[in-house]
Backbone:
């Protein structure tokens, strides 16, 4: 007889959206062996779950913890997360080229790899490393930006035919080796410069392999309807399963577009396209400060950008284009991290405040900071309205994600509290949906979308990845000013039947 544990007296929320019910759950050898009123030997260990919900372990379907998952950080475990989908927005830790410096320059701002010589040549190598070292289960996407860097470096524009064929072969190999799918980051150079035809060729491979395509689209601003149309057309032509990453409408003047965008997605789904989306429960987002700049300024990577910023004529062109394309007000953009101690006092300041302290225009303060920090600056920006956020969270096609990533500074609170905040603020307090539906959005739905066949639902024969929480208390106190405050209400977390939280 193997290791056993009986969870008794809890309210079972199975991840399918079915009504909750009182039921015991029997774990044996890392698997769920029985559900209901279960006779067990008297010496079977028991965990009293009376007054608590017993749910599948939460799945973070949009994570950037590609490197930190290997360090066994506890921020996600404390939220009830038992599995993460990494490699999002075109940034993945594989396939790495022999000279990894261009990859690091491209991805360190999102993957927080500065100072480390990270990178794996293949999906097999990376996934084997996660199986050896990570407590959370890691399901990795192949990042389009990383794939491009591996074969062409940080150059922009259409690629030669022999490079495209090599990218196709590498993508196919990665999917065969266990990668969960493919992601693009079409607002990040060099992937932002990829023509539709390049994406179509790669998505055909994804479709043929039965995997998923997740996209950070070309725009979440005024051009978002056109960006959605492009991705829907990719799915229509190739037959790939489409996941629109962190759907939101950024910038006050664009908020009215949300109804139109949701209608585009719903109409496509009704017409047979396999499309869904995900979102995080915050009005602010976070990314790299270079996202303020025109994409041509990033051609050639960080070294080329720094040369342009040091040239008065190029800098003036960059500043003009950045101001013309700005979707936010300067008061809505905050510095969250810098690459060196030199400008540590900038962390937490808005660009409006930074401009006052430097007696400069906000755009000049931003460009100076990028130049001083070798382009290594992260920002937190208030993107969307609360009304729009609630509408996307509640939509039947929406999964809940963190989109969290680590920084040397002040991270977004979603890294520490996304899932408890969703359950507390939006399910319990605002009543946007039933608790059963809220749990489904973090378990059964992402498991189905990303092909995680043995998790996401509590049923006999499934892995015993479980989260036990208090529905009346679960929430997050993490704020933009104090993002690292721990969540409340998560009582027990199991991965393959082993208790991993609390430690």
Residues:
């Amino acid at each position: 007889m193997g290791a056993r544990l009986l969870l008794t007296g809890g309210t079972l929320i199975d991840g399918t959206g079915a009504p909750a019910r009182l039921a015991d759950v029997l774990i044996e050898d890392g698997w769920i062996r029985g559900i209901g009123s279960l006779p067990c030997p008297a010496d079977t260990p028991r965990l009293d779950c009376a007054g608590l919900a017993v749910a599948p372990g939460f799945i973070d379907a949009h994570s950037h913890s590609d490197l930190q998952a290997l360090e066994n950080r506890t921020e996600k475990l404390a939220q009830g997360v038992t599995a993460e989908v990494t490699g999002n927005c075109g940034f993945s830790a594989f396939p790495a080229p022999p000279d990894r410096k261009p990859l690091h320059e491209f991805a360190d701002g999102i993957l927080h790899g500065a100072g480390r010589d990270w990178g794996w040549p293949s999906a097999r190598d990376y996934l084997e490393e996660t199986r050896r070292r990570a407590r959370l289960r890691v399901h990795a996407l192949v990042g389009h930006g990383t794939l491009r860097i591996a074969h062409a470096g940080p150059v922009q524009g259409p690629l030669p035919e022999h490079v495209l064929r090599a990218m196709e072969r590498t993508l196919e190999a990665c999917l065969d080796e266990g990668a969960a799918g493919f992601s693009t980051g079409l607002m990040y150079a060099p992937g932002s410069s990829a023509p539709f035809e390049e994406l179509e060729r790669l998505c055909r491979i994804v479709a043929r392999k039965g995997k998923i395509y997740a996209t950070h689209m070309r725009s979440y601003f005024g051009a978002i309807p056109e960006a959605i149309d492009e991705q829907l057309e990719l799915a229509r032509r190739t037959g790939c399963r489409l996941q629109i990453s962190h759907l939101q409408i950024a910038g006050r003047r664009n908020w009215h577009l949300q109804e139109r965008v949701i209608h585009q997605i719903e109409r496509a789904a009704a017409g047979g396209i396999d499309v869904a989306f995900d979102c995080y429960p915050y009005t602010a987002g976070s990314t790299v400060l270079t996202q303020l700049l025109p994409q041509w300024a990033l051609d050639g990577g960080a070294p080329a950008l720094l040369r342009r910023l040091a040239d008065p004529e190029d800098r003036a062109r960059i500043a003009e284009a950045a101001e013309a394309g700005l979707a936010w007000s300067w008061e809505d953009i905050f510095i969250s991290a810098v690459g060196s101690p030199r400008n540590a006092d900038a962390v937490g300041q808005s660009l409006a405040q930074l401009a006052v302290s430097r007696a400069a225009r906000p755009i000049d303060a931003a460009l100076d900071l990028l130049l001083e920090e070798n382009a290594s600056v992260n920002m937190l920006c208030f993107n969307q309205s609360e009304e729009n956020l609630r509408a996307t969270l509640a939509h039947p096609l929406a999964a809940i994600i963190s989109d969290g990533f680590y920084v040397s500074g002040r991270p977004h609170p979603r890294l520490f509290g996304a899932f408890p905040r969703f359950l507390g603020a939006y399910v319990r307090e605002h009543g946007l949906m039933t608790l059963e539906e809220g749990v489904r959005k973090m378990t059964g739905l992402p498991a189905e979308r990303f092909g995680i066949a043995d998790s996401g639902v509590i049923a006999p024969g499934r892995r015993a990845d479980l989260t036990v929480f208090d529905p009346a208390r679960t929430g997050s106190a993490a704020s933009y000013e104090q993002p690292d405050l721990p969540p409340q209400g998560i009582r027990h977390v199991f991965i393959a039947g082993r208790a991993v939280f609390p430690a």
Notes: The CA atoms of residues 207 and 240 lie 4 Å apart.
